[in-house]
Every structure is written in C-alpha cells, then in structure tokens.
Automatic annotation (TrEMBL):
Statement: the UniProt record of this protein carries the keyword Transmembrane helix: yes
SUPFAM superfamilies for this protein: MFS general substrate transporter (SSF103473)
Residue spans crossing the bilayer: 40-59, 71-93, 99-121, 128-146, 158-178, 199-224, 236-255, 267-289, 295-315, 327-347, 353-375
GO molecular function: transmembrane transporter activity
Signal peptide extent: none
Name used for this protein in its record: MFS transporter
Species in which this protein is naturally found: Rhizobium lusitanum
PANTHER family cross-referenced by the UniProt entry: INNER MEMBRANE TRANSPORT PROTEIN YDHP, PURINE EFFLUX PUMP PBUE
Principal location: membrane
Subcellular location: Cell membrane
Keyword annotations of the record: Cell membrane, Membrane, Transmembrane, Transmembrane helix
Cellular component per GO, a single term: plasma membrane
Membrane-topology descriptor: Multi-pass membrane protein
Residue ranges occupied by any Major facilitator superfamily (MFS) profile domain in the UniProt entry: 4-379
Amino acid sequence: MPLALLVLALSSFAIGTTEFVIMGLLPEVASDLGATIPQAGWLVTGYALAVAVGAPIMAVSTAHLRRRSALIMLMGFFILGNLLCAIAPNYWVLMIARIVTALCHGAFFGIGSVVAASLVPEDRKARAVALMFTGLTLANVLGVPLGTAFGQAFGWRAPFWVVTLLGAASIAGLAAVLPKSEEARQSSLGREIAALRGLSLWLALLTTVFFSAAMFALFTYIAPMLRDVTGVSPEAVTWTLLSIGVGLTIGNLIGGKLADWRLGTTLAGVFLAIAVTSAIFSVTIHSFIGAEITLFLWAVAAFAAVPALQINVVAFGKDAPNLVSTINIGAFNTGNALGAWIGGVVIDEGFSLAQVPLAGSAMAILGFLTVLLTFSTMRPKGEALASS
C-alpha cells in the first residue's frame, strides 16, 4: 500500500470532518447564532454549493501545476477556512468561512482521486479511490461523533480548531510523500472543456447528484430527527453518528471491490438499497433499536456508491480525468445542497421530521433510473449494466 494513499486518506479525513461535523451541532450553532434549524441547515447547503461552483474553477486554475503542488495549495485554503470558522462572530461570517473552506474541497478530492488511482495497477483503481475516501468515511466514524461530543462539551467552535491542526499535519504529509518528480501538466482550456461533451458524461454526473441528494436529504437533519422524533439524548446522537460512520466505512470498502467487479450492477443495486432503507427509516424512526439498525444499513448502502460514482465519470471523460473527477465532486455537493434544501422544505411546509427520509428515498429512485438509462444506452467501452 503506497504511503501516499494513507496521507491522502488523512487529508480526506480532515476535509470530511469539517464538512460533516456541523450536522451534529446544528442545534448548538442555531442557538448560539440566533438562527433556526433550517437556517443553520443552509450552512450545509452553502458549503455544498461553494464546492459545486468552485470545484471546476479551482481545477482549471490549477491545471498547469504539478498535482503535488496543487494539493498542497488547496490544503492551504482548507486551513484558512477553518480558522475563520473557529473565530466567526456571527452567522454570515460563518457562512463565508464555510465557503472559503469549500473552495479546496472539490478540486482536492478530484485531483487526489486521480493521484490515488495512478499509484496502483489498473484492476485496483476503484479500491485505491475507495482507500482515499476511507478518510472521508472515517470522518463519519470518528471525526463527526468525536467532533460533536467535543463541540457539545467545549462549544461548537472547538472542533474547527482541531481540524485546523489536522490540516497542517496533512500539508506536511503531502509535502513529504507525494512524488516530486512529476512533470508539470500542460493543459489546454479548450481540451479540458471538450472533454465535457457528450450526454453520457452528464448522465453520469446527474447520477452522482441524485445519490448525494438522497443521502443528505436524510443525513443533514439526523440530529433533530433523532432528538425530536426518536427521543434520544444529545449524547446518544453522538453514538448513533458513530454507528453510521462504521456503516459508511464498511460500505465504502465493499463498494470499491464491487465497482472493480461490476460497475453498473453495483450502482443500480446501491440506489435501490438506499431507497428501501430510507423509506423504512421513516417508520423505524419512532423506535430507538429500529432506528439504529436501519441507519446502519442505510449507511452501508450509501457509501458503497462513492468509489463507483467516481470511476463512473472518469470512464466517460478520460481526456480530462482531473477536471471531470473534480466536477464529479462538485456534483456530489450539488446533490448535498439539493438534499439539504429538500429536507428543509419538507420541514418548513409543516410535514413531520419523520417524513424527511421519504424525500431521500424519492431521490434514490431517480438515481436508479438514471443508472439504468446510462448503462443501457451509453456504455463506456461497450460496458453493459452487469459487467465492468
């Protein structure tokens, strides 16, 4: 296992923690800054939209740089954004800080996943990407629950100080282990844009959007759902987030192996599993044991899709893998914003929190239909739904 993959995983752990930890602290943030829960949810949406908009801009802006230099620069943005989060005096400064942090997110994961795939043989590329994204899942296993507990004990700003230190450690690691001999990339803007042509690529990106919308329609509001509907304590929310994180990690590792085996079948099966478990959660949410079991299974299903979705878009955009991979991270976060917004609309329209997961189920069904359309008609290199 290349050491560089572990450093990339550490970096993704730091980025994932700063993105997701605020979900477990929405009630604390809203109370401290005088905002409502849906308004606090916009801090999730704002971050996601900034990734979606900033990802291609940052990818093109760094296209002439060595990947090593680009990744180190992007982590510099990450540190700056987290410092601003930690000292933000009001809601809007916090929103701006989240946007600054988000600028590094899409390009880092996009470029980093290309680097990860380049470090291993052809038949292990999805697993290498999965290993990098293991940092993201571990952010949910450890970063989010520990950050939530830390924020509840010492104030919601405390986790952002810790993540700032993780960012500094990540920069040091990237500088030490990433290959220094890589030639500077010569990139033509026209060539990069040309790689975005074709309905197949955009269907693959839309699949990513629906996946993320399905996930975050539920996940964004997990803390208030557990507190107000299931009736658990704030401390129990932390343990539930830990259980979800374990499920996400297991799903990510399983998904990497399945995607190397049969890409289309993996995606179709994952979307069906997300739709079913989300719908079931709208019923089991009223029971602590039922909710815990369902959320764990939902988490396994959800992150089994991540490496497959990343490999999926590169298959349709091989002429500019850095750009399309980065745009796919933007698609993840477009879906993140869409899901958070849909969940907020469900709440604002007077529906109960228990009905929010049904919105996620509907998004998953749309994703399943998109997968069927993509692999039945567009097929990268003649790839069928049931083969890689």
